Amino acid sequence: MIRPLAGMARIGLRFQLAYRSDVIMSVLALVAQVFLLRMVWTSLYGGQGQTRGLSLEALLAYLSLANLQAFATSPIIPRITHFRIRTGTVFFDLSRPTGYLPQMAAFQAGHTAGGLLMLAPAVPVVLLVGTITPTAHPVGYAATLALGYVISLMMSLLICVIGFWTLETGAISLLYRLVSHFFAGTMVPLSFFPGALGVLADALPFKYMGYVPAAVYVGHISGGEIGRAVAVEVAWIAALAVLLWAVWRRAHRRVVIQGG
Amino acid sequence: MIRVESLTKVFRRPRAFSGPLGPLRTLVTRRYDERTAVDGVSFEIPEGEIVGYLGPNGAGKSTTVKMLTGILTPTDGLIEVGGRVPWRDREANARAVGVVFGQRSQLWWDLPLIDSLRLVGDLYDVPAARFTGSLRRMCDLLGLDDFLHTPVRQLSLGQRMRGDLAAAMLYDPPILYLDEPTVGLDVMAKQAVREFIAETNRIGRTTVVLTTHDLADVEALCRRIILIDKGRVLFDGGIDDLVTAYAPPRRLVVELADDETRAFEIAAGSSIPELIARVSAEHTIRDLSIHEPDLESVIKRIYAESER
């Protein structure tokens, strides 16, 4: 079981590295975005010490981290699945001894690892722009981030599976990207969201890909709240696993009966 | 090795309505169109045989191959590959079969060929030593060395096809399904593919099911063919038997002095010199030739008969 997945992860990694110029452009966009956000927020703060419990320094550190995370975890597999369904090459993926979803999950993990590798040179720049200092909660940060990544992975797999019905994931992927980045809090921390929007953002799982780990890092979420966040993340993973399993079973039945 | 009995596959699709509100009606009504792609097909293929599985476009060839690989479940009938029911025991079946589609590739487009081949080794858990041996053999047989490290998107169609054949055979499956493996290839590349198939079959006693529109493939590789159309078997037997049973008569083609060309059917058992004498009594013959029926004309005739 391990070797097929390692093989798929390696393909994901190579795939990422094969598109170096794409990644370099994205890294430039990332640095630019962090820089622009810094300008806007510095001006908005206008010398105030704290807003809703966040100092300007903590806010800038938060934004840099949230954007780094969102960039590093942005999914590739909906695009891959879309392409392979459209060209019919998904036949080969389905004919392997290893299941389709484990293959795609491993591919995504390898792709993310490749992204991190290429992101490495940009990290010092982003950290500098964001004036990030070491965190007081390294374990909490690592735990919320790792679980957040698993949630992001499962959501991507869900979009892949939906592709078996719609035969099209381009528009859904784009929508997902916009919605997930916004509700992950890459522009504005979720604690700044007003009323109903705040409630909605709090209820959705996207915050675990950006806001929650980054807020833990800068100390905006601390103490018992970290433990609670981890527990909710685990619950989300369990729920998504059940949903994914059920949806996949239906999708697979559709494939074996209709031939896609 | 492969046993198929009364195999049937019916596809069921929501009925599409036309007109301005058509898509909406399609969505809300529960009416379906049924299409029988494979209709009571039966055959048996013993180990080590190369069988040509032929039929016009849409005859049900690929649907049969998909059921043999376990990707599709049959609507009815029995299917057994190496003693297993493919769709029920999909994983074990997957390890026992290699598949090549001429029209689609299992190779990763943006990566060097070797990456896709290594992936196959990992996915099928081929032990390292055996993988190295297999890869070496494939490289020698298919001449892969020159482009092993070239991204697949830069390969010619012939090179890509050779890569696909290697990927399908790296884990030594006892059964190989080939769906139009020579489509679009030049003469030399076709030859290389045919030689590889013959060699694989000879050395490993690999059972091969070959789907193709190129009858030269069939003549070069198969002794037996199964002919299907509209999901039904029209003929199953040796190529020689097929030609004897269905061959249209030979034809005498003569070119006349006034540049006219005429053809005369040679009835079975009739004398050719007599026919020539009769024709030359009426016309001045400049040139003549006798046309033997080829496999293509035989198959054309069978399809035409099944249309009626």
Residue share in helix of chain B? 25-40%
How many strands, which pairing sense, and closed or not: the largest β-sheet of chain A?
2 strands, antiparallel
Task: State the shape of chain A.
Answer: globular
Instruction: State the strand order across the main sheet of chain A.
Output: 1-2
Poorly predicted segments of chain A: none
Q: Number of DSSP helices of chain A?
A: 12
Order of helices and strands of chain B: EHEEHEHEHHHEHEHEEHEEHEH
Kindly report how far apart the N and C termini of chain B lie.
35 Å
User: Could you tell me the radius of gyration of chain A in angstroms?
Assistant: 19 Å
Biggest β-sheet of chain B: count, sense, barrel? 6 strands, mixed
Largest interface: A-B, 26 and 34 residues
Number of domains of chain A: 1
Q: What amount of the residues of chain A lies in strands?
A: under 5%
What is the tally of beta strands of chain B? 12
Count of discrete alpha- or pi-helical segments spanning 4 or more residues of chain B? 11
| CATH topology tier name of the largest domain in chain B | Rossmann fold
The H-level CATH homologous superfamily of the largest domain in chain B, spelled out, is P-loop containing nucleotide triphosphate hydrolases
Say what oligomer this is: heterodimer
Mean pLDDT across the residues of chain B is 89
